[in-house]
Give the backbone structure.
Amino acid sequence: MKGVVYTLEVLFAAALILITLTFVFQFSPPTVQYDIPLMKEQGAQALAFMDSNYDMRKWVADGDILQLRSTLDSLLPDGLNSELVICRNECNAGLVPVGKSVVAVDYYVSSYNDEYLGYKLRLWMWR
Amino acid sequence: MEIMAKRKKEKKQKGQMFIIAAIFMIVAIVMIKNSIGTSAIQEESRFQASNTADRTIENVRSEYSRIAALAQFSSQTGGYLQDFSSEIRHDMDSRIFYVLVLTNGTTQNCNVTTGNYLGEGMNVSVNASGTVASAVMKDMSSSSTVYHTTGSMLLLVKYGGDAETFNLSTTGNSEMIFTDITINSGLVKRELDKSQWAW
């Protein structure tokens, strides 16, 4: 009889630990929280790289959004969706999906050669 | 009889120890999970956010230099700086103060433009080799003063509790831009920069 009670106590203790482990680790790590700063950094890095290594300012001055988008697509990682616009102050977010975690990065392009532009590139990204 | 009762009690306590040990283990598991589970991810997120904030402030700073460089081609540079500063203020939590100094070798004039986008009215004084102009500048405003001098000039600009000194030569055409930029994107970053050109 005593042996049965001990066994039950051990089983109870083991069950308690298993239940706690299941409860504590049932949630996956907060990947979304991590993902957002990473996406922002990838976007900011791609825009800065495009400014340093391509004719980005000329394309902005010419309003050549297609060239900007295609170059940016080649710089951003696969699986990352993006939308890019050239704007001042308010930026139209027409093609940005609703109901998804979307991050935005601004990159200022104030001038090109001897011309003041006062534009910025706004890049939206989502997975 | 008493000895038997003691032994029974001791044996019963042995069984309870499993449950007590289990409770200690549970507390330890929860504590370890809370301390390690998310801290590494949060640290990485902070690192990435800090990198992005650095890139943003670098982008803003370099654009001020680019706009200042337009002074060689246009007399509208003061207006461009105002326009750009207003846009930055519109887009993000930022505090910016700038000083643009243009010297003209032909007229021997020195044009000093200050811009206050620090988020509050600020007492700004410009001491140009002893000639002092002082005023309270409203937030989101700029002011220009022209000084005439021959040869060199020492310019001391005080704004709030900060000050910046410029050593100028008015024998040729030159310009200087000083920027004090602070942005708050969750992380507060401040950068002071001074650039100079002559042509």
